[in-house]
Amino acid sequence: MKLLRCLLLIGCFCLPLITGAASAAAPAQVVLEPAQQQWLEQHRSLRVGLVLQAPFAQFDRRLQQLYGVNVELMNWLGRSLGLDLTWRNFPDQAALEHALLAGEVDLAPGLTQTPASLRLWLFSDPYMRVPQLIVGPRTGAVAVDLEKLASTDRVAVRMPSTVADYLRATYTNLNLQGVPQERQALQLVLSEQARFAVVDEAQLSRLSRESEFSELVVVGDIGLPQLLRVGSRRDWPELAGIVERGLQAVPPKDLEQLHQRWLEPKYPRLSESPGFWQNLGLLLAALLLSCVAIVIWQRRQLHQLEHSLLATRDTLAQRQAREEALRLSQFSIDQSTVGILWVNWDSHVRYANRAAESMLGYASGALIDRPLIDFEPTLHMDRWLDLWKRARTSDEAPQHFETRCLRADGSLLPVDVSLSFLRFRDAEYLVVFLADVTERRRALAALRESEARLKGIAGNVPGLVFRLERNPAEGELEFPYISEGSEALVGYPPAALQHPDMGLRNLVHPDDRAEYHRVQDLALATDSDWSWQGRILTRQGEQRWADIKASTRTLVDGRVVWDGVVWDISQSKRVELELARSQEQLRELSAHLESVREEEKARIAREVHDELGQMLTVLKLETSMCELAYAELDPGLNERLGSMKRLIAQLFQLVRDVATALRPPILDAGIASAIEWQARRFEARTQIPCLVQVLENPPPLSDAKAIGLFRILQEALTNVMRHAQAHTVQISLSLDGQTLRLTVIDDGAGFVLEQSRPCSFGLVGMRERVLMLGGSMTLESEPGEGTSLSVAIPLD
């Protein structure tokens, strides 16, 4: 059988070589045009690029040669055209195209024409069609129409691929499942994870030779074949024409044989067929039956002995298991922390474990045959018989009660008693379970003390203490606890506030209710702490200010709990409002004083400029008259009069500077002109360039706003000159809706805003001016990154 298998394998391997040699023995004659023949004579040596992919092209490392459908095709063309072919193989299409761009490849077979590849190759007409096949199980196989498949029928296909894109666009009803390789697609069909698989014919021919996929057959075609072409260099159009002539000369019969030999699926060989293995199995079964007939008489003799031994071993194992279970049960009962007593109908103890003896203070075995009245003085015979009767006739849960047992030393032990009826070996007992509840009672007492202490503390808190819970299963909120302080705070008793229709929300003032709901709903949605300040209404309608704070925690059972306090902050709120009102009045007073001061500066500037300037003009005129009248009489007098005129000119300049410092006249020309003028003065004084961008037609401003913006700019430039160490300054005046924005940016040293000096009166003064004008100021700065000051003033 092994020899037959070897012969079959050798025949299958050699068949393609023999048929290939036969087909290559007599290639057809290719007729070329004279120009093509002349070009071919000059280019006999051509380099062929192959992408290694079975069954199109493969490399046999043992024989060091290439084989496959594309290799045979190019060999046929080479012989028919008299070409000397040099082979280059590549792992993928990208490596082949890279070699083409590098000038290392002249032509390549087995390519598919795409818009991207047309820029690299000149393609021949298709020489072979590779259909995309639908593969399904052999059992019940029928022709498949993809349009009639249900959405529950899963189709496996390699993704990403052109075939998957075509199926997704053409058959929108398909339930596609992507796999990286065709092998995984066929395996999904075998494992019934997919109904069908879409595989191209070339890959199916390679995989169908494996016995794993012998139960799969072709059940349809998707109608999108892969057309194989020969691609050549775009700079050699003559080569493309020669290849086209050569392909046309290939006999269709040879192409068909090439297709059948390499691309058509090959079904399982003889050794893999079900009939072969069935016959082989029958032969082996006959051999097995003959062997069984030889040894069966020996088994019959040993069967009885084995059966007896197994029965004996099972009996011993069962006995050992029962003894072990009995020992474990006895050990568990003896070592239990719960006292266990077996009591007869006459209330005498039949059995007691170690825990019961330790609880009652008796030595080992001292409880046997003692009546229960020795341990529980109130358990007289009538009561005991009543308990016995109820336990014997009741099918409900065991009786349960608490009592105090008398210990051997005369002390009393609080225990939890549970009774259960038991029948054992034709006898009846009442099993008494004793549990020491000393620690539990101590814990209950401590809990009551803690609750009393909590109520006392909550009752003395000047406010309302509450607990809000939410059940995760139902999602409902409830107040399991509200302190007695609720009546003093809002006039409602705790029971009224705990009602589902009341709660804390109904106490909130209607004007503040929306904000309260927002804060509380956010905390309830995120299971987080929440805090709120606002007004609440008492039962008498009195308005009070309250501060509500609650912290959240999650209990072991999953419930979310908020523990909170409602403080009465009416007094502190009134003080806060009074303080805010006082600050607002101070700011208004400061604004008024600033306005009065600016008006006084303007008046003084006008008087200095008009009155003092007029007097200096008259003085200069008188000096000039004296110079004309008496300068020629005395040369020293002429020099004195010239000195007086220079002093008068300096006084003129001083008067102008004082008037300008008090109130620059340029403000009368508009805020834009004033900003430009101040920037140029800053440049002249500091030699720091200023880039100014202002509105061409700024909106009209009141005198107070114009002066305020100008003073803010002066203070900002003063800070730049003193502290910034800047190289450039940018000043802009822009209009944003109904807001006028002044921005001053420097590229100086900058500073840390949090570390600015608290006594920086320049920034404080600018901020107060902005607040008096009803605007806002933004200051941004980082060390080494400069400083940006932005002031926004509303026009209204």
Offer a concise description of the structure:
This protein has 21 helices and 28 strands. The chain is an alpha+beta fold. The two termini are about 105 Å apart.
Please, could you describe this protein's structure?
The chain is of the alpha+beta class and 796 residues long. It folds into six domains: 28-127 and 243-262, 3-Layer(aba) Sandwich (D-Maltodextrin-Binding Protein, domain 2); 132-224, Periplasmic binding protein-like II (D-Maltodextrin-Binding Protein, domain 2, 3-Layer(aba) Sandwich); 336-436, Beta-Lactamase (2-Layer Sandwich), CATH 3.30.450.20; 442-566, PAS domain (Beta-Lactamase, 2-Layer Sandwich), CATH 3.30.450.20; 569-663; 667-796, Histidine kinase-like ATPase, C-terminal domain (Heat Shock Protein 90). Helices cover 47% and strands 23% of the residues. It has 21 helices and 28 strands. The strands form seven sheets. The chain has a five-stranded mixed beta sheet, with helices on both faces. Helix 2 crosses helix 8 (237-249), helix 17 (570-630) runs antiparallel to helix 18 and helix 20 runs antiparallel to helix 21.
CATH top level of the largest domain is Alpha Beta
What share of residues are in beta strands? Answer: 15-25%
Provide the number of structural domains.
6
- How many β-strand stretches? 28
Widest sheet: strand ordering:
10-9-11-8-12
Report Rg. 54 Å
> What is the structural class?
alpha+beta
User: What characterizes the major β-sheet?
Assistant: 5 strands, mixed
> Low-confidence parts lasting 5 or more residues at pLDDT below 50?
1-25
What name goes with the CATH superfamily of the largest domain?
Histidine kinase-like ATPase, C-terminal domain
Determine the CATH topology of the largest domain: Heat Shock Protein 90
The average pLDDT score comes to 78
Percent range for helical residues?
Answer: 40-55%
CATH architecture of the largest domain: 2-Layer Sandwich
SS field, number of helical segments: 21
Shape: flat
How many angstroms does the end-to-end distance come to? 107 Å
Signal peptide: 1-24
Organism: Pseudomonas wadenswilerensis
Coiled coil: 572-599
Domain PAC: 399-449
